[in-house]
Amino acid sequence: MTTLLSSLKVIARPEIAVKPPIIGKRTRLADKLKQQLDMAECFIQGSEFEAYREKSVKDPETGERKKVRRRITVRPWYYDSEGHYYFEVRIGIKPIELVKDKPAIDVGDKSKLPDTIKLIIDAVEKGELDEFILKAAKFPTKKAKASAEASKESKSEAKSDTSAKTTK
């Protein structure tokens, strides 16, 4: 070995523990809540909220891939009723129910929106909403529903074929 490489400390590759999937879901929800916080602060100040997402696009002339910032539409999770504001924590498009049949959080005045959202972000980061995140993740998607229906139909067809063969 050369003298430069001998000065390095070489070890066996350490085992890397797999992180539980809830950590990624928790982080994603916290990011969405921070976006809602920025939107609420812009709403209170009276300025326009703009959110961007980076997208990789192929240049038609050169064929190179470039990252381009595209503006995205973000819908607010807060709403008002006669000047009184409410906030809903959402996973996807569904609001999560923090208490049975009660998904809305009573905020009151719109100036309290940022403080309420900050409190929810802290709760998410500490893992207090993990059970709600996991419960929301168990809802079947359209794709899962379609595949479940297709498998039911194929099973019922298979049963009818076998019963027809046995009666002959």
UniProtKB/TrEMBL annotation:
Pfam families: DUF6641. It comes from the Bacteria. Residues 141-168 are annotated as: Disordered. Residues 150-162 have a biased composition (Basic and acidic residues). This is Uncharacterized protein. It comes from Shewanella baltica (strain OS155 / ATCC BAA-1091).
